Amino acid sequence: MIQQIDHIGIAVKDLEKASRYYEESLGLELHGTEVVESQKVKTAFFEAGDVHIELLEATSPDSPIAKFIEKKGEGIHHIAFRTDDINGQLGKAKDSGVALIHEVPIDGAGEKLVAFLHPKSTYGVLTELCMSK
């Protein structure tokens, strides 16, 4: 079951520069950075109420984030929904005709399992499902 919006992923070219904006201009507190090898990104998390802001910087030119920025520029990359049953949620999405990017959850940032739904099936929004391990 979907519990809430967990975070909004924002693709950036320079994680340190973008982090300074969120800290200094918006007054949000940095809650840590992490390299996610499976996604070829470095992330930084900020809290805004019950929702996190996840900044994503590519660590490789073939990273999905690098490709996203090359095609669309910096900006909102995805919306992540927290669930307590990621496999059940993936099955529900698949059964309703949604194209899955990940049939099986993979390791994500923050000790979570994640899986993405294809934006062609989600009205143009790259949608992430996430669940704490």
Automatic annotation (TrEMBL):
Enzyme's top EC category: isomerase
E.C. designation(s): 5.1.99.1
Domain of life: Bacteria
SUPFAM superfamilies assigned to the protein according to its UniProt record, in alphabetical order: Glyoxalase/Bleomycin resistance protein/Dihydroxybiphenyl dioxygenase
Keywords from the named record: Isomerase, Metal-binding
InterPro entries the UniProt entry points to: Glyas_Bleomycin-R_OHBP_Dase, MeMalonyl-CoA_epimerase, MMCE/EMCE_epimerase, VOC_core
UniProt organism field: Pelagicoccus albus
Domain VOC: 4-132
Name of protein: Methylmalonyl-CoA epimerase
